[in-house]
């Protein structure tokens, strides 16, 4: 059973669940958008992507973010996924993180894009 993120109640009044591919995507999202120091019992957990919301979006910042994000994904989700490609792009006032990965248990190869900052 995989609990859906963000936490929700399903129509039957139970904890909402999801499939494995969506659960893995949810774990990646949690890792990317958690700031190191935010979790009391795991102060080093997180990729620090949220720090880029107020940082200057530049190619140099994108490269640094790519390095730290890849390290965090390997450290915390390396047993669940194999990152095939990770690309961070600075666009205007936003950072776009595109991840191509392999889910080790199912062999699926999803591609997910996350955007930090900018105006929507």
UniProtKB/TrEMBL annotation:
Pfam families per UniProt: GPW_gp25 (PF04965)
InterPro entries, per the entry: IraD/Gp25-like
UniProt domain IraD/Gp25-like: residue ranges: 20-107
Protein name: IraD/Gp25-like domain-containing protein
Organism (species): Sphingomonas parva
């Amino acid at each position: 059973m995989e609990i859906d993120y963000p936490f929700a109640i399903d129509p039957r009044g139970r904890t909402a669940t999801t499939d494995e591919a969506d659960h893995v995507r949810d774990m990646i999202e949690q890792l990317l958008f958690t700031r190191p120091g935010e979790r009391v019992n795991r102060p080093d957990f997180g990729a620090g992507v949220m720090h880029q919301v107020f940082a200057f979006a530049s190619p140099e910042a994108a490269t640094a973010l790519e390095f730290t994000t890849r390290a965090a994904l390997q450290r915390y989700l390396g047993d669940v996924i194999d990152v095939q490609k990770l690309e961070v792009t600075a666009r205007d006032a936003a950072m776009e993180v595109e991840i191509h990965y392999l889910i080790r248990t199912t062999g699926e190869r999803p591609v997910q894009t996350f955007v930090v900052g900018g105006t929507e």
